[in-house]
Amino acid sequence: MRGYHWxxxxxxxxxxxxxxxxxxxxxxxxxxxxxxAGGPPPQELAESIVIFIPLExxxxxxxxxxxxxxxxxxxxxEKGVAPTAIVKHANTLTAPMAAGVPVTLFxxxxxxxxxxxxxxxxxxxxxxxxxxxxxLAPAPEISVQVxxxxxxxVHAARLNxxxxxxSANIRIPADxxxxxxxxxxxVIRPGGTGTTTWINAATGPALQTGMSPLLxxxxxxxxxxxxxxxxxxxxxxxxxxxKEPAGMYLLFALLVAAGADPxxxxxxxxxxxxxxxxx
Length: 279
Known about the structure:
Radius of gyration: 22 Å
Strand content: 35-45%
Structural class: mainly beta
Order of helices and strands: HHHEEEEEEEEEEEEEHEEE
Number of strands: 16
Shape: elongated
Number of helices: 4
Distance between the termini: 14 Å
Largest sheet: 6 strands, antiparallel
């Protein structure tokens, strides 16, 4: 039972970190003096307004003389057209942006260039923006399980030569956040001593040490159901011999923003884990 409490704590902590990231207070970039003095609000000045999810932390200022492309994904276009690129000018002070935390960007196209730059942005929160419904978009439904050959759930490994079936199911609802994601499917060894993940190799399911995505660039713009059984053509199977290190193994499936670091919980879109105890 202690194992169940432990895994519940892991999931709760991950979700708490994600929620905390989604509600980080973000100080907006100070708009032009004309706006402060009663000029047009940023939504009128902006040529494009987008919901943007950074793939990396963006500092308040980039020193030096080089402009930088802001890496991230556009979740939705609220005004104008989607920019080809978003550039942060060197030595221009804005509030920092955190990886995986959606913001509303107000953009102007650089004259004579094929990119936009932000003139203002706000945190995506109900107290700041009516666009907060995006932050409340339903998360993908993820379930992982270990079962017997006849489909009965297993939480303690059988050492009688039985093959254990390992699988994950992901359902993307029609009104999910409209971005691309990567899927990871793997096992954390007892005590967090290491992680292995499956890839779909030419010869079938193959385990690799570390975090390798099973699928890249899944488009959440369309409702879909993804199962590892369909991806591999069958369930992943494992027969425990009793020679494996004893302890609690964690089978997991994780969705993160495409191209993002899976160890950064701020980039998580959904996760599920289930324990398997080996004695």
